[in-house]
Amino acid sequence: MVDEKDVQNAVVELLRRTVVRLPKDVESAIRKAYASETDEVPKMQLKAIVDNIELAKKTNTPMCQDTGVTIFYVSLPRECRADVEKGIVEGVRRATKEVPLRPNAVHPITRKNPGDNVGDKMPYINWKVWDKDHIEITVMTKGAGSENMSQLAMLTPSAGLKGIKEFALSTVLRAGSNPCPPTIIGMGIGGSADISMKLAKEALLRPLDVRNKDPEVAKLETELLEAMNMLGIGPMGLGGKTTMLGLNIEYAYCHTASLPVAINVQCWAGRRGTVRIHKDGKLEFPTHEG
Ligand code: SF4
User: What CATH number belongs to 4-21+63-143+270-284?
Assistant: First the structure.
């Protein structure tokens, strides 16, 4: 039977792999951008990122000094009796020391830093119960440089598709070099103010090469990605063809009188990882094998 200690060990290893190695889809988008960039300055920037990725793997150290805050998405079997929450919290504490992770989590008003990335509602955990018999834990380690560029707009329905596109493009334009481009955009459309923000972050969990199953939304993903790459911001804001590595949209039905649109900005270090904890304690890392 899986217990809290198993969860703790799984989370330490998950965090180690997540901050050291990018998921395959993100790394391959960066390498593709590097291969296709022709101008010297943006190519140099992309080379620095590729070298950084290689060095992190070789030395087993985090790819960026900002190891972010930890946002978890957990799916639990109905019969799970393990204290998964405690396992995750203690796992984050241990990973902060053992990996190590930079202690980023502070009290929002006093700015007091407990030094272990743990505080009220941090790590932040999103829960779901499912019918499978293993526990699945996904983590996103989100740096501040890109998160700070995220935006919400409560558009009027009459703004329509044009309004959505204008808001998305102006958000990326305003962000400029701040989120360490090339970036990844997660968009949440519909629901309510809070739901669209949640969807925008969840959109970042989908691999960059998988389009939304709704053809209209998939078309918007492709159009916006192409348009954003024409802005000329480029790697680290120094110009070039690649401003954006990917763009995913999730949506929810909304009130007939509203049109919430949220954007979550993710830097090139699109760190997300998943661990499966099987009933016999066996661990599987589908995003970070080996
Ligand atoms: S925005 Fe991303 S790449 Fe830039 S410093 Fe923050 S975590 Fe690192």
Answer: 3.30.1330
